Amino acid sequence: MAHGQPGIGCACLLEQRKAAIDPLKAFIYLALASLLGLPAAVLANPVSQRVLNVGYYEFAPAIYTDAQGMARGELAELTRRVARQAGYGVRFRGLPGARLYAALENGSIDLWPGAQGKPELATHTLEGRHTLSQINLNLYRLAGTPAPRLPDDLAGKSLILIGGYSYWPKVNALLDDPGLDLRLLRTSNHLSALEMLQRNRGDYLLDYQIPVEQARQRLRMEALPYQRLAQVPIHFIVSRHARDAATIVTALDDAYEALRVAGEDLSLPSD
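Predicted structure:
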């Protein structure tokens, strides 16, 4: 028994040293977190940081893919800031609309900073409580064209759409109404859509205001008259099939609120 006592003494000494070091380590992590504006849990255990797969589709200038394949734009940056505050990393993945929705439905995408209230996503997603921005869906026409009485004056007309975008029940009902006999002309981007309208290759353009304004300025076009069909709030949308989905939504909501209370500028371009 006496022969074993030195070992016991060494073990006690090690435990005492560990107890002394751990509080110091915790203090250092907290100090770094305060200086860098990062959650202490991220610095304390960076290896285990959860990385969220964030899906988006091209919606310049709010969120888009740059020449190096990186997600850029103010909505992308806000998503990074809020996720970092919540203790998450992010990995962005650009997808066409239909594939993005499918990825939210199967859980391969955790988060989409996108449109609230999509009926097809209702059973597959949880929505954050904060409105990040609002965008308008408009019906554009050339200057000098009379404002149509909706929906009757659209009968037999051609309507330019952006391929891959989806809309809301009222808008879809208008597009699918057999009595209107609409000719739907799809193109791949906002620049080509405006050029089609400008060249009278379609009677009207159905598109979102923020990307249309950017494209119009690039083309040096005059402002176009329009009628607003819908106003869409942008929220954090989390797949219900993501691991700990409810925890993610709450963490992002709390992080957004903490940044707002701290006086951070969280404003985004809105229509």
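Summary: The chain has two domains: 49-134+232-261, 136-230.
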